[in-house]
Design a protein that fits this description.
alpha/beta; five-stranded mixed sheet; globular
Length: about 220
């Protein structure tokens, strides 16, 4: 049996040419300016879902939004990929806002609610199961499966906002007096609209005392 060759991706290069031409028509110097520096004010931590394109949702051009995406927009303290992005955004780019954006109907969150085996990703989804367990009574009181999923999507965003605020990266920035706010948003694929979950932080005094980290004392100079 003859195997059909993989389809060429020529159409994507053609799309790229059209896109670049459109940008240059609006601003002939756009790419020249963009290549010299990036100075975004926002870090977007969102889901990898292809239906949730960060820049397009908020109407920002390349260079205006720094982006990190993973399955179900999770921030884990052992995920050095995410932490590296967060540190670069906060300490080098000096972003003023970190936005955790989930979306309703998230497949990753839905998979976490199931007692099925999905493979390697089950280890990642365990973090969302922990969110479910913390809010188990509230979630189990909901009979409608769609409503339950949507609530867990919201609770997951709120939990990840807390995780971001508890990092040494964000707390160090606040101690330096750096203006930095962390926001909780959720997106609806059904209507294309963002919603603010109104769970935001802009200072260390707003997080629970147990998570507040004091400044590391400088080592004393030894006199000889």
């Amino acid at each position: 049996m003859e195997v059909a060759p993989l389809r060429s991706l020529k159409h994507l290069f053609e799309n790229n040419l059209k896109w670049a031409d459109k940008i240059k028509t609006a601003d002939p110097q756009f790419f020249a300016k963009l290549s010299k520096q990036q100075a975004p004010e926002y870090l977007w931590i969102g889901c990898s879902d292809s239906r949730v394109p960060a820049n397009e949702i908020v109407g920002l051009l390349p260079g205006e939004l720094f982006v990190h995406r993973n399955v179900a927009n999770v921030v884990v303290h052992t995920d050095f990929n995410c932490l590296a992005v967060l540190q670069f955004a906060v300490e080098v780019l000096k972003v003023k806002h970190v936005i955790i954006c989930g979306h309703y109907g998230c497949g990753g969150v839905k998979a976490a609610m199931e007692n099925k085996t999905h493979g390697l990703i089950d280890n990642w989804l365990r973090n969302i199961k922990d969110v479910y367990q913390r809010h188990e009574a509230r979630l189990d009181a909901i009979q409608n499966d769609r409503e339950k999923l949507d609530l867990l999507c919201e609770l997951n965003v709120v939990d990840q906002v807390a995780n971001v605020c508890h990092t040494t990266i964000v707390q160090d920035a606040w101690r330096r007096g750096q203006a930095l706010a962390v926001h909780s948003w959720i997106y609806s694929i059904q209507d294309g609209l963002l919603r603010d979950l109104n769970f935001s932080f802009s200072g260390q005094e707003q997080i629970p005392p147990i998570y507040r980290l004091s400044e590391i004392p400088k080592p004393k100079k030894l006199s000889i």
